[in-house]
TrEMBL record, chains A, B:
GO molecular function per UniProt: magnesium ion transmembrane transporter activity; metal ion binding
Organism ancestry: Bacteria, Bacillati, Bacillota, Bacilli, Bacillales
Main location: membrane
Spans through the membrane: 286-303, 315-339, 360-381, 387-413, 434-451
Species this protein is from: Neobacillus mesonae
Official protein name in the record: Magnesium transporter MgtE
Amino acid sequence: MIKDMTQDEISLYIIKTLKENKKAEFEIIVDELQPYDLAKIYQDLPFKHKARFLLFLNPDILADLMEELDKEEQLDLLNMLGVEKSSNVLNLMDNDDLASLLDELSPEKKDSLLSEMNKMESNAVQDIMKYPPETAGRIMTNRFVWIRNYYTVREAVDKLKSFAEFAESLNYLYVIDGARRLVGVVSYRDLLLADPGEKIDDIMYERVIYVTVTTDQEVVAKTVERYDFISVPVVDEAHILVGIITVDDVIDVVIKEANEDIEKLSASGKSIDFETKTLVAAARRLPWLILLLFIGLISGRIISGFEETLQKVVALAFFMPMIAGMTGNTGTQSLAVVVRGLISHDIDKKVVFRLVMREFGVGVSIGVTCAVLISVIAYIWQGNFILGMVVGCSLFFTLIIGTLAGTVIPLILYKLKIDPAVASGPLITTLNDIFSLLTYFGIATMFIQYLM
Amino acid sequence: MIKDMTQDEISLYIIKTLKENKKAEFEIIVDELQPYDLAKIYQDLPFKHKARFLLFLNPDILADLMEELDKEEQLDLLNMLGVEKSSNVLNLMDNDDLASLLDELSPEKKDSLLSEMNKMESNAVQDIMKYPPETAGRIMTNRFVWIRNYYTVREAVDKLKSFAEFAESLNYLYVIDGARRLVGVVSYRDLLLADPGEKIDDIMYERVIYVTVTTDQEVVAKTVERYDFISVPVVDEAHILVGIITVDDVIDVVIKEANEDIEKLSASGKSIDFETKTLVAAARRLPWLILLLFIGLISGRIISGFEETLQKVVALAFFMPMIAGMTGNTGTQSLAVVVRGLISHDIDKKVVFRLVMREFGVGVSIGVTCAVLISVIAYIWQGNFILGMVVGCSLFFTLIIGTLAGTVIPLILYKLKIDPAVASGPLITTLNDIFSLLTYFGIATMFIQYLM
């Protein structure tokens, strides 16, 4: 009925059914909507209609809706629902989504929500929350259908049918043995194609790719991406199947990790988005800036050490920003290549050696080109051949140093098991300022008698 | 049999079967391997064994293997296979993978490969290649099973069984009418749960979310991510179903787009990875660097305009790198927040106004803190109160300017439909150098009589 309506038309239609208190008609519309669309409509709904909107939805759909909202909206919704209905909704939510909601609440609020829930679900979500953040254990769901290896295909299909409403994703069925250990996997397709009398043991695929509860979520994402899976099973240390991770959660991980890399590379501060409040955003960015301020003063200290040189040839100051800037820029370029490369590559000595040599070569090529260019420009501008040579030589060396710093520093951090993206662009830029000023004024001081 | 073996043990075992020419044993092992693992083994295999390895594989598995390799490896493999077998393999490859292989070849090489293929497959891949790059048409596959709306569930399952080997992904079945227009979708689960006699028309879900052939791949990724789909159907302008896009391709798109953002933000040059040759990498980075070199000279020109001021108070030079650096750093921070935010937000005037005001507030907060800090430090270091005030005031203003430049420039580019990530970190940094030097020397010149 609403098949060809736009989002706005549907919204208006829903408001009409709410105003006229037509629950049956309302339910027919809602039944046709995807959770994401329903959440959009709910978010844009005038406040006065929200209470009845929630009243009209059953707990199943409310749980789907919850999973599309952000934390604040989720809490508002629970408050509006009241204790009894909200406990029903919490029971029905996916464990991983529920865990990430509870994670950000105060201990009191968390306990009060947990106490509303039924024992089994509340234990399950508390089990998940024991795993360290950003591990497979944290993003897995326990809503999946498992089958035993001694089932027949018919028994498996029957179990599937009876749990169809319960399970999040039913594309593969993971097979466990008597001790609940993961022993195989069967796809929907396999079940459809098999003879109903066949044993699961005979049709299942035994070399199951899995992750463990403590596997880092980035590794989980890499696994799913490499194997093109729709879900991946999670086992504990005894190889017992405890959950699955679905591809939709993996996409979220990939996006989150990419954002984190960009945040770190630009030192832009942890999770600042369009909604972050001014003072919070300022507070998150300040620590880096203050650190960089002090490192920047080291550059000042270096220049003051060359005060005499500078006083003799003030023109040296004209090229300072260009040399420092260029060195910083090449450093940032190398850094970005290395940080992103580390994500998709397995690193060994050979790879590192080749990469460092490549970047050295890049530094030399870029250095020669830019040095020749700037020598000519400086000579023409200042009419001093030696000054041109000093600026050119300095740029040549600083570009090589900048490229190598941008390559080697993240690699060393990686080796020390520190996230290489911590060596952010601003940090590399500021360090390269120091290197370039030392080189520039060092060379200038050597030739000072010819410069005057 | 190989269930509990490590990758290395499997490799050795495979080499053994190749040496002893045991094809049957070889096939049993290969049958248990995922395409990704098979590709890893192939890549690490000593060259002398590769020919027989390929000889032992059937075209189906070779096609799977091809899809895991990069372009150069794919071409090597095709050369080793010879014309007849390689045409078989090309016929069996997914259209989207084949299109991206052909895309990077010379026209002659492309035509020669296409002419080897059978007419139907070659036409299909050429159809895909007509769509603009980075659109849904380019990443869709035509290997999917569709059903008619007038089928019964039994007929649908029968069709599914007969095409099971052919179709890439069988999680949803898209339903078309007599004119091949997309009219519904049925999941595996629906088929399993339905009565065999029911009509597809009665059980299908009609409000199908779809994309069109010209939809940008980023929008496709956003759609799949929002709705948590495993695949999304692609229709042409007449609403005829022409392909599907699977979630594994969507993950690749998400990773590629994130890498592109990082490349642009750091101006690190288009698609430079660990394998890129030195001169290619240097050539890709040089254009940006040369542009930045000239912009850097503008900074030099500004300083030379203030030569007199600088000659009178050389100590002013000590704080130049710090002020320029800090301004650049705040700019980069704001830039990263805006660029990533633009990806996930729908932008209107209200959002822009709020964001600019927020960043202005951040600039003021950061400015006050850092300005007070540096005034005190400069006073203590140089023993000149006015110098401390000049440096502090300058930093206050330049930090606000830097923050706003990092916010407003990408927003303007976005408004002008230019990719905002083009306003890379290095560009913002270099522009902010100019702003900060003008501010700093401007203020210093105003107070020059008190500074001396």
